[in-house]
Amino acid sequence: MKIQGAIFDLDGTLLDSMSIWDSLGENYLKSIGKVPKHGLKEKLSAMSLTQAAEFFISEYGVNISMQEILRGFNEMISGFYTEHASIKMGVLEFLKKLKQKNIKACIATANDRALVEIFLEKYKLFDYFEYILTCDEVGSGKENAAIFNEALKALGTEKKRTYVFEDALFAVKTAKKEGFPVVAVFDESAVKEQEEIKSTADMYIQSFLEMEDYFD
Description:
By secondary structure, this protein is of the alpha/beta class. Helix content is 46%, strand content 14%.
């Protein structure tokens, strides 16, 4: 496995945190007196936070500014990160291995930069990543490959040797279609799509402890 670079999703991949994301939209709408519609979770799954806020304004008639909606999202998520979220098994060991081998790594996430920094500070992981890229900064969600291509450009590595680590089926499909080698990481939130994820990705792991076998 000749890795030159690694592009990591955050939630559900490095961080055991999908429970907050699965319920974020519904809980936020309820907090402002709106009734969530059926299928909301699925509609929001590929969206960045800004896209979700725009969706609430257009589809639910939320009469609140974009900035205020985003502030509400961030308050809910940051509290969860601080009190409940945990790093996934084997993540630290794998990141240390990449660092030892001078393999560049970055985070590419639909999350907000400030929230990513909360995670990195909590687990003292800043030194393991060259860059942080967010969907909002790139201008699109992971339904297209813009964020992966921007990450590749930032790392300056060969695409065929730059591995994308993702847990969600739609993101796995996007990266794979764009020509990246993809390692799919098990997350409980994606159990229903597990077989399709396995058949789409180049590799499928239950935890990052398994990555030790692929280095030498």
